[in-house]
Amino acid sequence: MTGPELILQQLINAVSIGSLYALMAIGLAMVFGILRLINFAHGDLIMVGSYVALLLIVLGLPFVIAAAAGILASTLAGLLMERLAYRPIRGAHEIAMLLTSFSVTILLENLAIILFRPTSRPFPAPAVLHAVIEAGKLRLASLDLIAIAVAAILLLALTLFVTRTEVGISMRAAAQDLLAARLMGINVNKVIAAAFAIGSFMAGVVGILWSARVGKIDPLMGFNPVLKAFVASVIGGLGSLPGAVIGAYVLGGLEILLQGLLPSALTPYRDAFVFVILIALLLFRPNGILGSTEKEKI
Amino acid sequence: MRPGSPVLRLAPPALLLALLALLLAAADLFAGDYAQRIVIGIGINIILVVSLNLSSGFTGVFSLGHTGFMAIGAYAASVCTLPVALKAVNLPSLPGWLSHSALPFLPATLIGGALAMCVAFVVGISLMRLKGAYVSVATLGFLVIVQVILVNWDQVTRGARTFAGVPPYSSIWNVWIWAALSVYLVWRIGRSPFGRDMKAARDDEIAARSLGVSVIRSRLLAFCFSAFLTGVAGSLWAHFITSFSPKSFFFVQAFTVITMLVIGGLGSVSGSVIGVFIITVLSEVLRNAERGLDVGSVHIPPIYGASQVLMAILFVLIIVFKPAGLMGGREIELGSFIRRIVPRDWKKFRRP
Hints:
The complex is a heterodimer of chains A (298) and B (352).
Chain A: H1 3-35, H2 42-58, H3 63-86, H4 94-116, E1 121-122, H5 127-130, E2 132-135, E3 138-141, H6 142-164, H7 166-176, H8 178-183, H9 188-214, E4 216-217, H10 223-236, H11 241-261, H12 270-284
Antiparallel strand pairs in A: 1-4, 2-3
Helix pairs in contact in A: 1-6, 1-7, 1-9, 1-10, 1-11, 2-3, 2-4, 2-9, 3-9, 6-7, 7-9, 10-11, 11-12
Chain B: H1 6-30, H2 33-59, H3 66-81, H4 84-90, H5 96-99, H6 105-127, H7 132-152, H8 154-157, H9 172-191, H10 193-203, H11 205-210, H12 215-241, H13 251-264, H14 269-290, E1 293-295, E2 298-300, H15 306-321, H16 334-341
Antiparallel strand pairs in B: 1-2
């Protein structure tokens, strides 16, 4: 492959992985924006959705129905999580909420280990998803293209939702100032539930795409994606939706770039480099790319 | 004797130490193998939790990456103490001077702690400027960096494989001497001007800064010192468990220590110690129950992982119903305890 084609190929790889990160990061950012809660258990929603989908596939249902049921299961799990674990501690200290989400993670992962055994299981995706389209000298995995398209559609829908619908506008109001929003008669419980539902829905979608990509699932599969989504939303500025999306694509690009540029002896250290760059970035922009740098006022 | 006289002031801690020594001696002489291991485990956890409390509880900079310092201490010290014969087999490509010498326990432990401290200094310079949730994510990033390095730096860490054959140097005595020392030092720091700076910056950063507190410096100090103690605990743990892998120093370990800290109450040294006792005993009981047990005539089959689930639920309940932890940031005051027993105006009762 020659120069420009190689660049295009890598760009597609970067955008496709960035799309998955973006869908994950949005869920984190929405919840953080309103509640100041870093929902570490967000990654386990991926796991829940994938296992439900796998269960139905094994039972003989067609892939599309199983995938839809998996996404639905993620959404319900997210709503349940909010109701049982996060609503009782709403308004608690940031750290207390973060630690609660850790407990939820430990809980879900161990439940999954008890129910499904700790070993990984193959995730059979239909052949269409693993097809490779040859366009000139480019080799495009259909899964990459699907990820990009799905993310584009969902991001567009989300943009319309938060700018055009009443719930969406209330959501932005709640993110700006929860108390003031409540005083204006916004039903905060409804808005927060909506935020969790949307974030969990997207996590469910990521779960199916991710499992199809990797080809196997295990109870701890949510850890890496959520970590990456964290990094993405921190790069963009915690709590900002556009920031989370930008951060995700920056992260996707960065990973592909490091993969290509690092000498082969250092490629296993890629994730370490990603975090070093993150920490370095935070030094110069402590609130991320889109976060305000305004000084706190007394 | 006046109430503030040195004898009265020093008596309680001296008594406490004597009592502790007595209990440890009893454990050392009479307790079975299993009980002794629990006693050592508690000692190591006390160091881990108290040192995390120094950086997270006193300064409010909540670190999720301390397990990384524990890993640094454990690996560094173990590479130093591993017998030369084993080094030739397990770590054939170790650089020169390290490969043909084995250090005794104390210097190796100090090296482990010092290395963790140096790393903390480098990392802390940038991290200590961040706020709230950003620090937590960034320190988690640090933990991932340490993981990646441990897994890939084959010639020193054996990569993802088990690092085995570490001499079992940790005993009840050396572990608990370190534990007592850590508790004392952290408690003293909490009372010192440094500690008050840390707490002031935690409670109101702007107010603290306006009073001339160098926020970043006080946080960095706490972070580095805490990393030193955590590194020491890592070394003690390595020479207690004797074989481990990078996986031992990841999320689950971090969560266990944090649970102990939060249950005892952030910012309270005595709370940390109480948290360690409660969680260690509880998790041992649960772990035994996990293997299956008979309640009356009902046999409950083994459910591995159930203890973790119960711990997680317990943790959420504590945060919901007792958000500040059991001690709520307060300390058990030995002095006031003594004063309650010995009346303040006891002189009145003396015959002329």
